[in-house]
Design brief:
There is one protein chain. By secondary structure, this protein is α+β, with helices and mostly antiparallel strands. The chain folds into three domains: 5-125, Acyl-CoA dehydrogenase/oxidase, N-terminal domain (Butyryl-Coa Dehydrogenase, subunit A, domain 1), CATH 1.10.540; 131-235, Butyryl-CoA Dehydrogenase, subunit A, domain 2 (Beta Barrel), CATH 2.40.110; 238-382, Butyryl-CoA Dehydrogenase, subunit A, domain 3. The protein contains ten helices and eleven strands. The longest helix has 35 residues, at 237-271. The chain is globular. The termini are far apart. This is glutaryl-CoA dehydrogenase (ETF). Keywords: FAD, Flavoprotein, Oxidoreductase, Transit peptide.
Length: 388
């Protein structure tokens, strides 16, 4: 009998020995250090981010796929496997790692000066500094070009005004990469929480991603030295490149949540007795489990193919959209179906599928909604942009 749903396709045989070892190490950490607490974190809508940062840093999970400055320089596939194991515990935890490494750190690594990289990246890789990424606004989500945050040059400083919304880690961040419109286009800035005019109030009463700290970034005549501007980009190419990095991690992470739902449900159906025999002995149950396992295996093979392309430098943005759209839809479908097999037990925090489903409702829409990814794929197929 397969010990994991992914054994149906012998997925692990497609990985290198190094990749399998990294996945096992991340799985051990997730199981032993994170999983015992996730119910309480989700229930209380909190996350000990400052404590977890150095632990993730010691594992090499922060900026894992970046080179130099204390970053491990691991392969894209290895990073994807890490995201899978972390999100098998909870999407909020993968978001924590993803925002740190694929958004905040990647922005500085890709678009920052040597001085900026040396100042921030080693401490962020170690988890000593926590980062956030301020792009989304209350009225500018899928359309970042309509952002209202403005940066005006004033001598050797910039004056920033505007509000960013739904920003993971912002209330606890030591480093905030914030994007703003300028006279010449768009610019990224590295902000620190003690800068005058900077505040990051937390957002409460969430029904999703509760084991994640989410907030705003409010800029009220916030003065930022020109040395804190990311010098290598002045267009939306800057933040959009970062978003593609984060989307890649979601491709794998969402499937980790789906795998955990399926493993949890298979175990439950084998012990739950209905009409004198285990629930797993019924044909309808096995049909549901089989359908979900097949979709999970197909999706994981797709994720691996995209990871191999990324490692060769051949992964195109529309291919990232293919993976993100597929993984999030399949994962959410699996989480919901698993909940039905758990019956009333499925609405408690004792079992993970409904918690994963709640989280995946957010994962489906952040870093690009399903509709936006459909349009990106449609443009690749037809050569015609249908965004407006």
């Amino acid at each position: 009998m397969p010990s994991s749903p992914l054994d149906l396709t012998n997925f692990s045989s497609l990985l290198t020995e190094e990749e399998r070892m990294l996945q096992e190490a991340m799985s051990d950490f997730a199981t032993q250090t994170l999983k015992p607490h996730i119910q309480d974190w989700f229930d209380s809508a909190t996350l000990p981010a400052k404590e977890l940062g150095p632990q993730f840093g010691q594992l090499g999970a922060l900026g894992m796929h970046l080179e130099g400055y204390g970053c491990p320089g691991a392969s894209a596939v290895a990073y994807g496997l890490a995201c899978m194991e972390i999100e098998a515990v909870d999407s909020g935890l993968r978001s924590f790692v993803s925002v740190q490494g694929s958004l905040a750190m990647f922005a500085i690594h890709h678009w920052g000066s040597d001085e900026q990289k040396e100042k921030y990246l080693p401490k962020m890789a170690a988890g000593e500094y926590l980062g956030c990424f301020g792009l989304t606004e209350p009225d500018a989500g899928s359309d970042p070009a309509s952002m209202k945050t403005r940066a005006v040059k004033d001598g050797d400083e910039w004056i920033l005004n505007g509000t960013k919304m739904w920003i993971t880690n912002s209330p606890v961040a030591d480093v905030a990469v914030v994007w703003a419109r300028t006279e010449d286009g768009y610019a990224g800035f590295i902000l620190e929480p003690d800068m005058e005019g900077f505040s990051a109030p937390e957002i409460h009463k969430k029904l999703s991603l509760r084991a994640s700290i989410t907030g705003e970034i409010v800029l009220d005549n916030c003065r930022v030295p020109d040395s804190h501007r990311l010098p290598k980009v002045n267009s939306l190419r800057g933040p959009l490149t970062c978003l593609n990095e984060a989307r890649y991690g979601i491709i794998w992470g969402a499937l980790g949540a789906a795998r955990d739902c399926l493993v949890t449900t298979i175990d439950y159906t084998q012990t739950r007795e209905v009409f004198g025999k285990s629930l797993s002995n019924f044909q309808l149950t096995q049909a549901k489990l089989a359908n979900m396992a097949v979709e999970l295996n197909k999706s994981t093979l797709l994720a691996l193919q995209l990871g191999r392309l990324k490692d060769k430098g051949e992964l195109a943005p529309h291919q990232v959209s293919v993976g993100k759209l597929n993984s999030t839809r399949i994962a959410l479908d699996i989480a919901r179906e698993c909940r039905t097999l758990l019956g009333a037990s499925g609405i408690t925090l004792e079992y993970s599928p409904l918690r994963h489903a709640n989280n995946l409702e957010s994962v489906l829409t952040y870093e690009g909604t399903a509709e936006m990814h459909q349009l990106i794929i449609g443009q690749a197929l037809t050569g015609t942009s249908a965004f407006r």
